[in-house]
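fwd from M.: "can u put these together and see what the complex looks like"

so here's what she sent:
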Amino acid sequence: MKDSFRQSMAWLHTWCGLLPGWLLFVIFLFGTTAYFQQEISRWMRPELHSAQVSDVALDAADRLLAAKGGNAASWRISLPPPRGGDALTVSWRPREGSGAEVGEVALDPATGRQIAMRDTLGGWFLYRFHFDLHYIPWYVARVIVSIAALAMLVALVSGIVTHKKIFADFFMLRWGKGQRSWLDAHNVTGVLALPFHLMITYTGLVSLLFTLMPWVISANFPNEDAFYEAAYAAPPPRERTGTTAPVAPLRGMVREAEAAWQGARPNSISIVNPGDRAAIATLFPERTRLAANGPTLYLDGTTGKPLQPPQTAGGALRTQDVMIVLHTGLFAEPVPRWLYFASGAAGTVMIATGLVLWTVKRRARMLPDARPSFGFRLVERLNIGVIAGTPAAIAVYFLANRLLPLSLESRAQWEINSLFIAWGAFLTWASARPAKRAWAEIFAIGGALFIAVPLVSALTTNRGLPASIAAGDVLFVTFDLLMLVVGAAFAFAAHRIACHKPRDVPRRRHRHEEAAA
Amino acid sequence: MTDLAVFVIALTGFALLFLAKPRHQQDWLNARLSSAAGRGLRLAGAALIVASFVIDGLVLGWGYGSVCWFGWLTLAAILVVALNSNRARLLRWVGRDRP
């Protein structure tokens, strides 16, 4: 096919990188923001003030469930994640034929009082989108994402071979040298965070294991349920007795779980047949440590004591568990979390510069007045709409969170629709304008949108930047300032592109190094 | 505190590895070092990077520590690259602009 090993690797690197490149950019961008998904959720739910769930709130949940769901088939208690961003949510499902309705109430994690929060998916959506996409069935999305991730792994390994000088030129980044600068930027962001890129791609594939290799299950088990039954301990079978007995207090169950999981808390508790002697509570652990999760815990619903000694998962499952924790960084304290974020941003820039490099390289070989091919124009327009447009669309998502009326029907969905409407508009804009202007304009609009986020937030909530500074609210201050920094970086990029003189000294590096931040 | 120490040690390590390359010596030291000196810098730089790993591992545990170490390593290397690629601007800043 090609004459040398390196050339064939270069070919592989180009096409494995380019074809899924825009999807990979989006996955990396959303995945990088997802390191702060709980923080983003806190910002997007300004009605919520406290992060950690208190015993008072758990007691309030006990009372509420006993009052409203006394004769329910099951209860579910969702605890806020460790860094906050959601309420303590309790819900109950009535017994079939009882005529009662499903109910759900959000409680303040600190006081246990009912709170009205705006309808939003918050950072959770940004996280889910990076592997489930949107508007299409999740299993189709995961197949697409799996293929892109496989291509990413191939592109990484072939990239190490192709850019043979990455280790010799380890520290080289030369500004203002056109194609050379783009290549330097691509290499530097690639090689300096290479351990992260390899880890994140590989563990990403591991988390999509059963999408990639469903035959592991189908070859050994009659169906998926049989596999999960064999792999995870099932609760002991217990029939409803008809004898009433009060449900054990939630705070006791949380303590029991903490003892069983070396301090990890449950993220949700479900109770089947509450109020009956045979009630069973199932507790699922929060992933907060760089170790395999504790096993699902089954407690007697009336005594709150374990029904059976927790079963330890097998080696393979525990290995997978650790890899997923490593991927999600859920265990990370603030400092390593920012390091994760920085490496993720480097990966996003690596993909962006790689995509731009494809066009820069081909542009350089073209005659000045030649009309570029359809493929070239397609790549160029997609680059503009995706690299500059996607971050700007995320700014629109944040703005929609503050601007959509609180009473709007399916409001959370409309926040998401806003993101995609804006993104579609940017892509259309990118295809309708001359390339250089399209870059500058979308970066300028993106910059304005990001800068608008803290302003709009200050006008529409009582937790604007001045109020947050006065209250010493580190999270809100950081979020608002970060929006201003990203907005300024976008404006700077737009300015540089607008002033750029292509035939003069080619100084194009600044274009979107900050695009992904 | 561990974080700061690891970062500074890794940064120093990368700076020494950086100066071990003849091309950068010309730029930053205005002279080429002997190959023995270059080898010495390379060894010292590598030793510092290994030391930063050992510190992270011993203090934070080998699992958690190595995750943090990779993160700091990336950041330290990026800083060295950023300093080098803005050399002219930096020199102008400190008022040591050369023709």
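replying to her w this: Confidence is low (pLDDT under 50) at residues 504-517 of chain A.
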